[in-house]
Design goal:
It comes from Thermodesulforhabdus norvegica. There is one protein chain. The chain has one domain: TIM Barrel, CATH 3.20.20.70. α1 runs parallel beside α2, α4 packs across α5 and α8 runs parallel beside α9. The chain contains nine helices and ten strands. By secondary structure, it is of the alpha/beta class. Bound molecules: phosphoenolpyruvate and manganese (II) ion. Phosphoenolpyruvate binds next to loops.
């Protein structure tokens, strides 16, 4: 079902009034985690002002350590719903368990399946049955074939609204958090009709590397990007070192407009 052979036309995915996979770029921006109401609304107003198309923020966080901040749960989803109400931005947030499906149906526009859950087949079937747009991240050590098969799980449940997201893979290189596999963009676009975006924040883990890799992703043909933005990255509860300052996000948006039209 994901193959371009049977479905040669690129798929367009509608999220409120925007289209992913059309002729305009989609920019998903926001903090790694929803930390509290004030901070989240502050960041949302800024990214909206600079032209972001969708807002991101995690309420259920898949953290490496069980002692790290785990997210605000439903309270975080309510804050995200308030962001949507105030800014009109559609909401993208991660689902980490099928038990969260009802809450996600109520509060968000796009459910994200994170890299660590890319082969959680029960979760894939669950988001397939939910029928909401899904952002499917590439697993930390997943081949493109495995990633597309994960997407196939979702489509096989009747949900064709899948956006693929390249977010870097594990290699022997340690300078960056992961290694951004930009080749995946043209490869995937040839194999499938599904739109593909790039997350240079998790791919590099380093703020200063995010802007050049975002530009490169768009130049390589990505349908959009997802970036982490924070007003005080030093105080962020997760992923501060890779979060852009508002001024950097503004400058990135100016660059992107030169490369391709943004929604
Ligand atoms: C995220 O986008 O918040 C996230 C946890 O990303 P990934 O699953 O790619 O690590
Ligand atoms: Mn993050």
């Amino acid at each position: 079902l994901v193959s371009r052979d049977l479905h040669p036309e690129p798929s367009r995915i509608r999220i409120r009034d925007i289209v992913v996979g059309g002729d305009r770029l989609v920019v998903i921006a926001g903090p790694c985690s929803v930390e509290n109401r004030e901070r989240t609304l502050e960041i949302a107003r800024i990214v909206k002002q600079h032209g972001a198309t969708l807002f991101r923020g995690g309420a259920f966080k898949p953290r490496t350590s069980p002692y790290s901040f785990q997210g605000l749960g439903e309270e975080g989803l309510k804050i995200l719903a308030e962001v949507r109400e105030e800014t009109g931005l559609g909401i993208v947030t991660e689902i980490t368990s099928p038990a969260q499906a009802d809450l996600m149906m109520k509060y968000v526009d796009v459910v994200q399946v994170g890299a660590r859950n890319m082969q959680n087949f029960e979760l894939l079937r669950c988001v397939g049955r939910m029928g909401k747009p899904v952002l499917l991240k590439r697993g930390l050590a997943a081949t493109i074939e495995e990633w597309l098969m994960a997407a196939e799980y979702i489509l096989s449940e009747g949900n064709e609204q899948v956006i693929l997201c390249e977010r870097g893979i594990r290699t022997f290189e340690t300078y960056t958090r992961n290694t951004l596999d930009l080749t995946a963009v043209p490869v995937v676009k040839k194999l499938t009709h599904l739109p593909v975006i790039v997350d240079p924040s998790h791919a590099t883990g380093i703020r200063d590397k995010v802007i050049p890799m975002a530009r490169a992703a768009v130049a390589a043909g990505a349908d959009g990007i997802m970036v982490e933005v924070h007003t005080e990255p030093d105080k962020a509860l997760s992923d501060g070192p890779q979060s852009l300052y508002p001024e950097q996000f503004e400058s990135l948006m100016r660059d992107l407009h030169v490369i391709a039209p943004v929604v």
